[in-house]
């Protein structure tokens, strides 16, 4: 009988930790080396967040609010939001209020915004605009920063799913910095070499519930993925993979903390 009580206590402890970790935001600053970046853009600061999943009942809501507070205080040059904004339509008013606090904010949607997921609690809540933030589908926008043109190309999750997404066709070789913003990190494997300088994606939640082992961890939601967060060099460009802020299906995170990341772009030589 003592083993039964011990097992129950362990389960309760794990669930309690998972609820706590879902709101335990990690704030990260990363140096991002970009080959050929003009000296004028050296030190450019980009905050990347994603997977907000607002509208769901989770301590991930606390992580989202704290991340927006931090982003607003940091006053970066750009804010990029890589999809899965809403899990239920009731979160839309807060989404608009939070994003409205951010300057130079560019956003794409994710599969959960269209309820294209295995989460039975998700409801379609795709929005068509998020002014003053700029919502991108399969389209590009440019902004001038420090006298240089920075291009952001968005990817619609529906064309990605249909394997028709081709953001590289919108990339402008004359732009000083070309950024691809897509919910799915797999976009980096679908594009030709040197399509973009920077690719920002999310989706994986770093597994959301993970089991560490020496040298890595097993991600239950995405068991085939070896990396769930951070910077990765692909032939198509430098990929930053965000572990996201919210939760889906279960309101827990275990060994997969929510994160908001500030990328500090640095000039480096090709190689």
Walk me through what this model shows:
With 271 residues, the chain is of the alpha/beta class. The protein has helices spanning 2-22, 60-74, 92-99, 157-161, and strands at 26-35, 45-49, 78-82, 105-108, 134-135, 140-145, 148-154, 177-181, 198-201, 210-213, 216-219, 230-234, 237-241, 259-268. A six-stranded mixed beta sheet has the order 1-14-2-3-4-5. It is globular, with a radius of gyration of 19 Å. The N and C termini lie far apart (63 Å). The model has no long low-confidence stretch (mean pLDDT 92).
Question: Which regions have little confidence, pLDDT < 50, spanning 5+ residues?
Answer: none
Quote the distance from N terminus to C terminus.
63 Å
Number of strands: 14
Q: What value does the Rg take, in angstroms?
A: 19 Å
How many separate helices?
4
Helix/strand class: alpha/beta
Helicity, as a percent range? 10-25%
Main β sheet profile? 6 strands, mixed
Topology overview:
Layout lengths: L1 H21 L3 E10 L9 E5 L10 H15 L3 E5 L9 H8 L5 E4 L25 E2 L4 E6 L2 E7 L2 H5 L15 E5 L16 E4 L8 E4 L2 E4 L10 E5 L2 E5 L17 E10 L3
Parallel strand pairs: 1-14, 2-3, 3-4, 4-5, 7-8, 8-9, 9-13
Antiparallel strand pairs: 2-14, 6-7, 10-11, 12-13
List the main descriptive attributes of the protein structure presented here:
271 residues, alpha/beta, six-stranded mixed sheet, 4 helices, globular
Summarize the structure.
By secondary structure, the protein is α/β, with parallel strands linked by helices. The chain is 18% helix and 28% strand. The protein has helices spanning 2-22, 60-74, 92-99, 157-161, and strands at 26-35, 45-49, 78-82, 105-108, 134-135, 140-145, 148-154, 177-181, 198-201, 210-213, 216-219, 230-234, 237-241, 259-268.
